[in-house]
Amino acid sequence: MSSARAVIGTFVVVFVVIVGTVSVGGLVVHDDTPRPSDVDTDHWDPDTVIPEEAPDGGEITMNSTTTGKTVVVHTGGSSAGGAGMGQPLPISDDGSGHTLSVGSLGGTNRGVGPLVSTLVENGHEVVFYDGGPSSRQTLRETLADADAFVTVGSATFTPTERESIGQFADAGGRTVIAASPGSTSDTAQIAATAGLYTETGYLYNLEENDNNHLGVYAEPTGDSPLTDGVDRVVLRGAAPVGTDDGETDLETIDGTTLSTTREAGTYAVAAHSGDMAVIGDSSFLEPENAYRVDNDVLVGNLADFLVTGETSDPVFNESPTTGNPNGPMPSQPVNGGQTSDSTAQP
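The line above is the sequence of GATase domain protein; the predicted structure tokens follow.
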């Protein structure tokens, strides 16, 4: 009996030792097992994935109380009546008696929609001119009855048209050139008559930008009628602007790079001299960009600049020296988005 108890006791002791060893070993193994490190998931956070964007909103207003000025807008190409664009839509008045020349809400004219709407809402007339063969008047004839002229994008002009624009500005006609990188030499020659110019290449900023590196920020260089009330604007792939006989108005923030030299720094992107102003970008006039940061203030200031000049009467005192740029004029008025001295009726 005692031997049986001894066997049972020995079994119990051995069992306890084995169980204890396994338990301790399990704890040791568990403690030595490497734990996976925390995974960085910041790249899934929408706040870090979505590019930083400039605030959007605001309203375009004008300070000038003058009315009845005529602004000619050259959009650098044919209107939306071309192939594949469908029937152009005439821009009607706003019910207050202000009229617009026949234009198009689409195509190249869309890029100046906010500026055009602001001018019309404040009692001014806007005439679109594209210089096509079906234009009812030459640019010289159109400018003879105008107070201001705007050209956007990579516009092309004949020698006669360049001469007419230069004479128009010399006569006090306010002229705004909203250029773009790669703008034609025609635009450069017109700007040069007032000591203004654009440089080759485009600007970008990899450090601080709006949505992508081409959305560069620019700030006023001082007091100017173009930058009154502006703290910061955003331009997209702008071209540098300079002046030999005027004032710079806007300059990019530090860290902006010029594509042709890869040099980072600050660059002037807007300047004016007398009655002519040059901005190295036209995208800020487009509906999707006109209300970002203080772009709306800049557009309103441009509208004021356009209608506050004083042109001599007559604007042109002599005939052009280089002939008629448009050839024979059609005998009948042309619709389909072409512009002239006629206006759309409400």
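Note on the example: Residues 24-30, 78-105, 323-346 have pLDDT under 50 and may be disordered. Residues 2-32 form the longest helix (31 residues).
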